[in-house]
Amino acid sequence: MLRLPPFQYQAARSVQEAIALLALHGSDALVVSGGTDLYANMKQRLFTPKVVVGLRHASELRFIRYDEQRGLEVGALATLTDIADHVTVQRQYPALAEAASVISTPQLRNMGTIGGNICLDTRCNYYNQNLDWRQALGYCMKKDGDICRVAPKSPICVAVNSSDTAPVLMAYRATLHLAGPSGPREVPIVDFFRNDGMRAWAKQPGEILTSITIPVPKLGTRSVYRKLRLRNSFDFPILGVAAVIEMRDGVCAAARVVLNAVAPKPVEAPLAAAALVGTDLNAEALDAAAEAAYAIGKPLDNTSGSIPYRKRMLRVFARRAFEACASGQTA
Fold it and tell me: What is the CATH topology of the domain spanning 1-60?
């Protein structure tokens, strides 16, 4: 049995208290909300903070609000179950509800939060192992080593983004709201993720993700998320495809396609989106878009499933996502 390392838990009852605690303890502290990812990683000694700052009692961060002018606002502590079951989210942002509903298991969705899922640590076959395994290998660039075991000549870590909500929020053009020692700030989600598995977010030291806002979808918008995983009951994605398509008079007026679990950050596929725009989403257009998604995705040996299998499934799952949008059955 893997046990947690020693640490001190300090419960913050507000955002400002959490920021103050993080500033007090500096690099010795990490923040936790649901804990479904952090505690598992701590057991594997991937993180060994001396202090864990808990957000569960910062009730100001748990909400879901919708306004017809401003759109959807979700507090960082809204659980994945809250989001998956929310009627307005299901109706207006079905891809987000779908993404939340396929994360892990019901018990963990009850604990896991949207903020925690967005800031999910990147994953890799050579990183997400226990201490003895990693020590026998000689460690890796992301933790205690100096080379990437997947791509030894790579100057950056290629651990993959495994957040199911991240690609969907990117396709919806969401904005993230953060608070820290320097005050609050907003970051478009497309600028939040970095293509480096070790430094995956544009989050400054001591900052906390507080909420997410998504614009009101235009009339005729269809959205979908499709996920591939080895064990369909609870696994992390080995491939994800998010699509948001705006239809006007039976023709695709705009589209955004985002691939997941193929790089350290969600990857936009602009050529796939362009293949859909100006069409009525006929079979030829869907095939062309799926082919464009297939071309841009470049899986590596950093997660479950063989590289050829995951590469082939890019075309298959992209086609399924576009077909769901074409039929109007998006959730």
Answer: 3.30.43
